[in-house]
Q: What sequence folds into this?
């Protein structure tokens, strides 16, 4: 009994330490965003600003076109998420329901492709987009985001499809439904948590992506928010810490808001009562 209690206490302590480790950067970012320049230069920093101010936010919007950059990021991230899910859902269904050697090889390739570093693909990718005249284009950037998010999105959805009972599809087939009708009317609604989670993954990946946007977008009117954030760092590497923290805090809000809205949809079970025992 003591061993069980001690083990559980150790698990809770490890979980608490992990939560503190995750929350510390964000909380420090929020604190920095509301501090005055004088307090930012203090040798004795505090968690809670002594004199909270919004000057950092005003300065951030005055110095950089944050709204335009946020609009570019939002457009690219939403388009990439929607397209990736539309492509990955039927492919995942085929890979999950037809476990052939080809499907297993495709699954293995999906996992291996995630190990490729960005630097390895950026030069051939740049040349391909240059031939297609999609350099400095949000359309080209969306294509890159879709291709980059698709393998992991496919891997996620395969697991969700396999969790859907085959008996439901067999019952639909008995009623005369074809494969496409079964996927749209029976399987897809039950995959709602997986589709939402996959779309969220693709959105956050595209929203936070920096390297591809830095290389492929050349003009200021096309740049995304992560690229614009680097403009708060001077030529000598000295960061304008207050406005940078304020802009970075605003950049994290969409991901947090979206996750807060749909977290119940992600964690909620959609298969309860679907199959009668």
A:
């Amino acid at each position: 009994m003591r061993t069980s209690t001690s083990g559980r206490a150790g698990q809770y302590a490890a979980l608490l330490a992990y939560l503190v480790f995750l929350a510390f950067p964000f909380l420090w970012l929020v604190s920095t965003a509301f501090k005055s320049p004088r307090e930012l230069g203090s040798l004795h920093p505090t968690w809670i600003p002594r004199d909270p101010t919004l000057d950092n936010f005003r300065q951030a919007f005055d110095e950089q076109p944050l709204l335009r950059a946020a609009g570019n990021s939002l457009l690219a991230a939403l388009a990439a998420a929607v397209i990736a899910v539309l492509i990955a859902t039927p492919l995942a269904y085929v890979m999950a329901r037809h476990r052939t050697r080809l499907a297993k090889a495709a699954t293995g390739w999906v996992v291996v492709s995630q190990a490729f570093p960005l630097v390895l693909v950026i030069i051939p990718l740049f040349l391909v987009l240059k031939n297609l005249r999609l350099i400095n284009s949000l359309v080209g950037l969306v294509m890159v985001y879709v291709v980059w998010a698709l393998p992991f999105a496919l891997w996620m959805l395969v697991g969700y499809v396999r969790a859907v009972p085959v008996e439901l599809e067999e019952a639909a087939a008995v009623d005369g439904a074809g494969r496409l009708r079964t996927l749209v009317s029976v399987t897809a609604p039950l995959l709602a948590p997986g589709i939402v989670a996959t779309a969220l993954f693709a959105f956050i990946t595209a929203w936070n992506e920096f390297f591809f946007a830095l290389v492929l977008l050349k003009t200021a009117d096309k740049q995304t928010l992560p690229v614009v954030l680097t403009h708060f760092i001077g030529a000598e590497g000295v960061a304008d810490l207050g406005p940078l923290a304020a802009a970075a805090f605003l950049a994290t809000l969409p991901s947090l808001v979206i996750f807060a809205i749909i977290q119940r949809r992600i964690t909620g079970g959609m298969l309860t009562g679907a199959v009668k025992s």
Q: What stands out?
A: The chain has 13 helices and no strands. The radius of gyration is 23 Å. Residues 125 and 144 are 8 Å apart (CA to CA). The first helix runs from residue 2 to 33.
